[in-house]
Write a structure and sequence with these properties.
mainly alpha, 76% helix, globular
């Protein structure tokens, strides 16, 4: 078994994932009713979601209590990049929606079991309450805002602890990282199951009925990743940004696309940061933080869907209102849940800016779930791979300023 495992892990993970993709798609056509195959995907995502809160909690806490120097400069740069990128995504989505207006066929009000937030104040209030949530409950419910806040507080507090205590925390984080590494090595089987489920459950109707809306959404997201993100990366490293862009796309975006969860992709991004030789004390904080506040895809989804609703109802959107919508969408996106479909329930809040009633905006949420197989997958791929991209870029900027060679 050891030899088999060594041979398996010796093959490039990307190659293994590509094989898993191909097999999943093939099996969906050969045996469309073999629902047991889809369980592989559920188990893989479940394992990532289960281990991610523990990984984030102990990595952040261990990094802060063992840190020998301040990394505030790099972390500050990462936060600025995260927030600027999210606002920029909203602005681009607004103007793209103006240039290419899309209308939807809205029918009866959609029925949903979860009530959307009624305003930005409710979103910010929810964020603040998550910060002070019970730490055990935060770990149990995968509340990453709460996990980060308690990990930071405990990590700073443990700086004055005995060395044996610090070593224990470090050992725990290393052991959890090894568990994560094992789960990630099984990713091809999980991807196989996820692809199988996606292909067997989604038909061509999504493309024919809501094709224009999907093209606009995906187009905006690709524009952020391949146009504006490279500009930000170039500002950081002053070199050709595309080697780093494609590395993050290949190694992070693929798994995020199929897991459809920024939270579940945290361990993947952590592993890639380690392989790139980045500082663990920095990325163990910035990667989980990005999964919470770096939500370019969510900002685009909220903005485009709201603008499409306004166009459908014949509501004129002037320039000041468009800018206001961009800011509102960016702030709301920071409060979006890091799970599949987390941004959709924030659409009614943005629609309220135009006086659109919930009975109409909830229909738009229903449309979002219909196209979610594609929209949410691309959104999560953008969100999560951008966490890795911008976090790495900020640290590489420090390398450049200190005269250290950048390997990209």
């Amino acid at each position: 078994m050891k030899n088999i495992w060594k041979k398996w892990t010796g093959i490039s993970l990307v190659k293994r994932i590509i094989v898993g993709l191909a097999l999943g798609a093939a099996l969906a056509f050969i045996a469309p009713n073999a629902s047991a195959i889809g369980i592989l995907g559920d188990v893989f995502v479940g394992a990532l979601k289960a281990i991610a809160p523990l990984l984030v909690f102990f990595l952040v806490m261990s990094s802060l209590c063992n840190a020998g120097k301040s990394h505030s400069g790099t972390i500050r740069t990462v936060i600025v990049l995260y927030m600027f990128s999210t606002v920029l995504a909203s602005v681009i989505a607004v103007f793209a929606s103006m240039i290419f207006p899309v209308e939807m066929a809205l029918k009866e009000a959609a029925d949903t079991a979860t009530a959307p937030p009624q305003g930005i104040a409710e979103v910010l209030s929810s964020l603040l309450m998550n910060v002070v949530a019970n730490p055990v409950a935060a770990l149990t419910n995968a509340n990453y805002v709460g996990i980060l806040s308690w990990a930071v507080l405990l990590g700073v507090s443990f700086r004055g602890a005995k060395d044996t205590t610090k070593h224990m925390l470090s050992d725990i984080s290393i052991c959890i990282s090894k568990v994560v590494e094992t789960i990630i090595n099984l990713a091809p089987f999980g991807i196989l199951g996820l692809v199988y489920t996606s292909v067997t459950t989604s038909g061509l109707e999504t493309f024919t009925v809501y094709g224009k809306l999907l093209v606009l959404l995906v187009g905006c997201m690709l524009g952020i990743y391949f146009v504006t993100n490279p500009m930000l990366v170039y500002w950081c490293i002053r070199k050709n940004p595309f080697p780093l862009i494609f590395k993050c796309l290949k190694e992070s975006a693929i798994t995020a696309f199929f897991t459809r969860s920024s939270a579940a992709n945290i361990p993947v991004n952590m592993r890639i940061c380690e392989e790139m030789g980045l500082d663990k004390d920095t990325y163990s904080v910035t990667i989980p933080l990005g999964a919470t506040i770096n939500m370019d895809g969510a900002a685009i989804t909220i903005t485009v869907m709201t603008m499409a609703t306004a166009h459908t109802l014949g509501i004129a959107v002037d320039f000041p209102t468009a800018i206001m919508l961009s800011v509102l969408s960016a702030l709301a996106a920071c409060g979006a849940s890091g799970v599949a479909g987390g941004s959709l329930l924030l659409i009614p809040m943005a629609c309220s800016l135009f006086g659109i009633p919930d009975t109409v905006s909830m229909q738009v949420v229903a449309v979002g779930f219909i196209i979610g197989v594609i929209q949410d997958s691309v959104e999560t791929a953008l969100n999560s791979s951008s966490d890795l991209l911008l976090s790495a870029s900020a640290e590489l900027r420090q390398w450049r300023l200190s005269g250290k060679e950048i390997p990209f």
